Q: What sequence folds into this?
C-alpha cells in the first residue's frame, strides 16, 4: 500500500517544505517510487528530476568523428518521468548550445546538424525557446539573431563563441534523453552543450475532482479491469452521514466502496466465494467537511482497507475457491442502482494507478459539478504565524502579507543585518495624509475592531521580533509619538534586556529589566511584548511568559504614535537621555520578523508591498536570517524526519549530482569515532586514577596531573582533528535547516 505520496503536491498538503522526497506517481502500480526534489514556492509546487550530464559539456575540438552523441541518465526511469509529465500542468527543460564554428539547426533551409531525442526515442529538430515543428531557435522567434539571415545564432558559423539557449516546454516530448551534435568535423569547430533538469509544476490528478450535489447523481466510466488485483484510492469530503462512493457489478461478482455511517467506511466485494466486507471504524466523525483519504486493495492473497492514518484492516483470502473478479457493468461513481449516493466531493480517484477524469465527466453530467471548494477547512492550519488561507480552484495558498514572514506557509523569517550607524524608520502615516487620518485602521490596530482610527491612541500593543548582537548598549526598537510617549526595547551596557514604557503620569519612564541574562552573546533571542491597558506580558525565548503592571499613576494610552525605528533613533524634539546615549553609534547585528501590531517594518523594506512608501532607510539593508530564532525554524533534522529518506537507500549512480544529503552521515560517523576515542581516554584515566589511589601518598599530585591530561587530551583531539569542529557545525546546521 502507499507509503509514499503520489506527488510533490501531496507532500505540500502535509505541510512539508522544499526537500528531496520519494514519490510514487502510480500508487501501487508497476512503476515503483522515485526520489525527486520538491520545491514548494508561494503559489506553485515544482517537481525536479535530475540527470548526470554536466553543464557545459564540451564536444568536438579534438575528434574528427561525424556525430557526437551525449547520453543523459536520469535518477528515474523514462516511464516514471512520463507519469510525472503527463499529470503535470506544465513542464520545462533548459537546453543550451554554445558554438564556435559549429552550426546548429542549419537554418534557414538546410537539414539540422544537431537534434535532441525525447520521450519514446523521438528525434526533435527544434531548440529551446521554440516549439515543435518550428525549425528555429529562440532568437529566430524573437527576431534578434546575431545575423538576421539565420534563425539561430550558431548557424551564422562565426569564429567567436555564440550561444542558442532556452526552455523546451512541450511536455509530451520531454525529457531529453540524448543530444546528437553534428557540425564538428572542420578544424576549429567546437561546441558546449548544457541541459537542465526536468521541472514540472502542478498535478492535475491530485486536484481532479467532482462535487455530487444530489444523492441520486452519479458519474459512469467503463468497466473496472481488476480481475486479480484491484487498487483504489481517493479523497472524500462530506457533511452527509452515508452514501455509496463507487460500485461495479458482474453477474454475481461485485466491488463496492461506501460510507456506511458518519464513522464507518466499508469495502465489500464478491469473487464467487460469497460477499466479503471490510469495515474501518473511525474514532472521530468522517462527515466533518475535511478531506479524508481512502485506500482499498484486493489481490488473490488478501484484501485491505485504510482510511487516513487509521490502522489498516486486512482480510486474508480463502486458500481454495475463486480468485478472479469478473465485472460487466459500467463503473458507477456516486449513486448506483437506486442506492443512496454520496453527497459531497470526491478527488483524485485512482483505479489501478490510473486517475479517472472526474472533472471532464462532471462537466456533461447533471447533478455533478466539476471541481470542489473549501480546501481551507482542511489545509488552513498549515498557514502559520497569522497567515491567511486563500481558496483556489485547485487547492489553496497562504497569504502572508499581514505577517512578518513569507514562504509557502508563512514560516520563513524575513530579517536583515544592520551595520553600525544604519537605521530604518517606519512612518505610521504616509507622506501627504492629514493628521486626522494619521493612523489608518489597518496599519495600527490589532485585529480588534474596538480600536478606531480617529482617536489615534493605542490602549494595546503587540510587539514581537528576534535579534542577535554582540555589542551593548544598543536600542533594538523604538516607537516614537507626537507627544512625549514612547516605547523602547534596549540592551543596557551590561548586556541585559530592558523594556521602557513612557505613557505619561509618571516621573520616570516605567522600565522592565531582565537582569540575569546576557542578551548580547551573539545568539538569536526572541522577544514578545503584549500590553493591554495596564497589563504587560513579556516572553523571552522559550522561557515562560512573565506579567508586569504599569504603575497606578501611569496613563494607559499610547498617544499619537508617529514612527518606529530600528538600528538607531533619529527623532526630532526631546528624547530620553539614556536612549540617546545607547543609540550612538547604533545597533550592530541582526533583526528578524519584526512585527508591531499589524505592521512588519523589515518586511515592508525588503519586500515591495503597498506599505513600502512608509519606510525610510539610511545605509544598505542586507537581507539575512542571521537573527532568525531557532524557535521559528522547524527543528526536525533530516535524520529524524520520517518523510526524509536517506540517500543511501536510493540506489542511484548519480548521488553527487542529484542528492546532496550525504554530509550528515559523514559527520555522524566522525562524531561516533570521536565519541569512542574520548570514551577510551576517559576509561584509561579512571583506571589510572584508581591505580594512583592505591598508592595513597602520590594520590593528590597525580589526580591533578590526571585531570590536566584529561583536559588536554580532549583539547588535543579538538586541535588535531579538523573534523571535530566541523561535526559541531554540521549538527548545528542540520538543526537549523
A:
Amino acid at each position: 500500500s502507499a507509503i509514499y505520496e503520489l506527488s510533490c503536491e501531496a507532500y505540500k498538503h502535509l505541510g512539508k517544505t522544499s526537500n528531496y522526497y520519494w514519490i510514487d506517481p502510480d500508487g501501487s502500480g508497476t512503476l515503483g517510487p522515485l526520489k525527486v526534489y520538491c520545491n514548494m514556492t508561494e503559489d506553485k509546487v515544482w517537481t525536479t528530476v535530475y540527470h548526470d550530464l554536466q553543464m557545459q559539456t564540451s564536444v568536438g575540438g579534438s575528434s574528427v568523428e561525424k556525430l557526437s552523441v551525449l547520453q543523459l541518465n536520469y535518477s528515474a526511469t523514462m516511464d516514471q518521468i512520463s507519469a510525472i509529465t503527463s499529470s503535470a500542468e506544465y513542464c520545462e527543460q533548459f537546453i543550451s548550445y554554445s558554438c564556435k564554428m559549429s552550426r546548429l539547426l542549419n537554418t534557414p533551409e538546410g537539414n539540422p546538424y544537431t537534434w535532441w531525442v525525447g520521450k519514446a526515442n523521438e528525434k526533435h529538430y527544434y531548440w529551446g525557446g521554440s516549439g515543435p515543428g518550428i525549425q528555429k531557435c529562440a532568437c529566430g522567434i524573437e527576431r534578434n539573431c546575431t545575423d538576421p539571415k539565420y534563425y539561430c545564432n550558431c548557424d551564422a558559423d562565426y569564429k567567436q563563441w555564440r550561444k542558442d539557449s532556452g526552455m523546451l516546454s512541450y511536455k509530451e516530448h520531454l525529457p531529453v534523453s540524448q543530444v546528437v551534435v553534428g557540425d564538428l568535423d572542420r578544424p576549429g569547430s567546437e561546441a558546449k552543450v548544457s541541459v537542465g533538469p526536468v521541472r514540472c509544476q502542478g498535478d492535475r490528478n491530485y486536484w481532479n475532482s467532482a462535487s455530487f450535489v444530489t444523492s441520486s447523481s452519479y458519474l459512469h466510466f467503463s468497466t473496472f479491469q481488476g480481475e486479480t488485483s484491484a487498487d483504489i484510492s481517493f479523497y472524500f469530503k462530506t457533511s452527509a452521514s452515508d452514501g455509496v462512493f463507487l460500485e461495479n457489478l458482474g453477474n454475481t461478482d461485485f466491488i463496492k466502496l461506501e460510507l456506511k455511517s458518519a464513522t464507518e467506511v466499508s469495502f465489500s466485494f464478491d469473487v464467487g466465494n460469497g460477499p466479503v466486507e471490510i469495515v474501518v471504524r473511525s474514532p472521530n466523525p468522517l462527515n466533518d467537511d475535511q478531506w479524508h483519504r481512502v485506500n482499498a486493495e484486493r489481490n488473490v492473497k488478501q484484501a485491505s482497507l485504510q482510511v487516513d492514518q487509521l490502522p489498516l484492516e486486512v482480510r486474508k483470502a480463502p486458500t481454495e475457491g475463486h480468485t478472479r473478479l469478473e465485472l460487466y457493468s459500467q463503473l458507477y461513481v456516486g449513486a448506483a442502482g437506486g442506492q443512496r449516493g454520496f453527497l459531497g466531493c470526491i478527488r483524485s480517484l485512482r483505479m489501478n494507478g490510473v486517475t479517472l477524469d472526474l472533472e471532464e465527466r462532471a462537466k456533461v453530467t447533471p447533478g455533478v459539478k466539476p471541481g470542489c471548494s473549501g480546501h481551507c477547512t482542511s489545509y488552513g492550519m498549515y498557514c502559520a504565524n497569522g497567515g491567511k488561507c486563500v481558496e483556489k480552484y485547485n487547492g489553496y495558498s497562504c497569504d502572508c502579507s499581514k505577517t512578518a514572514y513569507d514562504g509557502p506557509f508563512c514560516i520563513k523569517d524575513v530579517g536583515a543585518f544592520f551595520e553600525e550607524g544604519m537605521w530604518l524608520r517606519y512612518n505610521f502615516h504616509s507622506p501627504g495624509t492629514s493628521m486626522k487620518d494619521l493612523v489608518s485602521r489597518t496599519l495600527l490596530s490589532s485585529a480588534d475592531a474596538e480600536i478606531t482610527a480617529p482617536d489615534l491612541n493605542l490602549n494595546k500593543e503587540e510587539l514581537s521580533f528576534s535579534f542577535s548582537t554582540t555589542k551593548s548598549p544598543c536600542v533594538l526598537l523604538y516607537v516614537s509619538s507626537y507627544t512625549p510617549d514612547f516605547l523602547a526595547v534596549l540592551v543596557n551596557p551590561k548586556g541585559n534586556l530592558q523594556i521602557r514604557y513612557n505613557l505619561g503620569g509618571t516621573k520616570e519612564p516605567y522600565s522592565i529589566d531582565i537582569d540575569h541574562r546576557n542578551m548580547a552573546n551573539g545568539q538569536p533571542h526572541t522577544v514578545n511584548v503584549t500590553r493591554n491597558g495596564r497589563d504587560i506580558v513579556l516572553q523571552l525565548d522559550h522561557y515562560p511568559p512573565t506579567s508586569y503592571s504599569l504603575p497606578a499613576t501611569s496613563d494607559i494610552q499610547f498617544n499619537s504614535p508617529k514612527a518606529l525605528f530600528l538600528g538607531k533613533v533619529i527623532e526630532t524634539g526631546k528624547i530620553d537621555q539614556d536612549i540617546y546615549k545607547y543609540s550612538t553609534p547604533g545597533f550592530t547585528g541582526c533583526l528578524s520578523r519584526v512585527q508591531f501590531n499589524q505592521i512588519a517594518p523589515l518586511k515592508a523594506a525588503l519586500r515591495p508591498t503597498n506599505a513600502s512608501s512608509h519606510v525610510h532607510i539610511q545605509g544598505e539593508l542586507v537581507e539575512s536570517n542571521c537573527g532568525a530564532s531557532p524557535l521559528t525554524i522547524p527543528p526536525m533534522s533530516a535524520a529524524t524526519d520520517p518523510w526524509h529518506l536517506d540517500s543511501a537507500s536510493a540506489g542511484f549512480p548519480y548521488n553527487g549530482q542529484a542528492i546532496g544529503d550525504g554530509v550528515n552521515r559523514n559527520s555522524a560517523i566522525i562524531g561516533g569515532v570521536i565519541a569512542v576515542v574520548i570514551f577510551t581516554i576517559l576509561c584509561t584515566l579512571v583506571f589510572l586514577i584508581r591505580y594512583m589511589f592505591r598508592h595513597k601518598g602520590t594520590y593528590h599530585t597525580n589526580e591533578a596531573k590526571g585531570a590536566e591530561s584529561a583536559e588536554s587530551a580532549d583539547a588535543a583531539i579538538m586541535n588535531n582533528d579538523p573534523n571535530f569542529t566541523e561535526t559541531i557545525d554540521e549538527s548545528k546546521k542540520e538543526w537549523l535547516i
